[in-house]
């Protein structure tokens, strides 16, 4: 049941649910996630995997621990994603030149190709999402959502 049908409902309990901001955030997240999944179906990459590829592409040699911190992922999740991407030939690990205890991450040529394809999918996904808003609304939406996640 979409938000519009909730608004039109005569059921007081459902109308009460319609006033809950978190409920609408959950519905919006679900719609965005579904579209992302459909857009990325042929790439066989998750949102987190794409984020890791993008971050490593922007910061070659980034330490695995810093990567996890920047993407707000715990160590176990970061390691699992990095392992999977390495197994697929998209990333390579090297000992950090500055701190031998750290793992530095780099994209492989296959990883760079996968990232470029992912960026095209992201552009398509972002166009779909942003088409629902004006430019000013997009800016304001990002600002408001940042208040929640920062």
Q: Helices, strands, pairings?
A:
Layout: H1 3-8, H2 12-18, H3 21-39, H4 47-58, E1 62-63, H5 64-70, H6 75-87, E2 91-95, E3 103-107, H7 109-130, H8 135-149
Helix pairs in contact: 3-7, 4-7, 5-6
Description:
This protein is mainly α. The chain folds into 2 domains: 1-39; 45-149, Orthogonal Bundle (Arc Repressor Mutant, subunit A). The protein is 67% helix and 8% strand. It is built from 8 helices and 3 strands; from the N terminus they run ααααβααββαα. It has helices spanning 3-8, 12-18, 21-39, 47-58, 64-70, 75-87, 109-130, 135-149; strands at residues 62-63, 91-95, 103-107. A 3-stranded antiparallel beta sheet has the order 1-3-2. α4 (47-58) crosses α7 (109-130) and α5 (64-70) crosses α6. It starts with a helix and ends with a helix.
């Amino acid at each position: 049941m979409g938000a519009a049908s909730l608004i039109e409902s005569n059921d007081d309990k459902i109308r009460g649910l319609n006033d809950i901001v978190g409920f609408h955030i959950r519905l919006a997240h679900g719609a965005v996630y579904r579209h992302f999944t459909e857009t990325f179906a042929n790439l066989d990459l998750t949102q987190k995997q794409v984020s890791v590829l993008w971050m490593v592409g922007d910061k070659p040699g980034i330490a695995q621990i810093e990567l996890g911190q920047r993407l707000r992922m715990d160590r176990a999740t970061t390691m699992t994603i990095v392992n999977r991407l390495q197994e697929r030939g998209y990333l390579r690990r090297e000992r950090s030149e500055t701190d031998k205890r750290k793992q530095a991450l780099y994209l492989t040529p296959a990883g760079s190709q996968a990232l470029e394809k992912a960026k095209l999918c992201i552009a398509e996904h972002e166009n779909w999402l942003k088409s629902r808003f004006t430019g000013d609304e997009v800016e304001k939406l990002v600002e408001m959502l940042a208040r929640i996640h920062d």
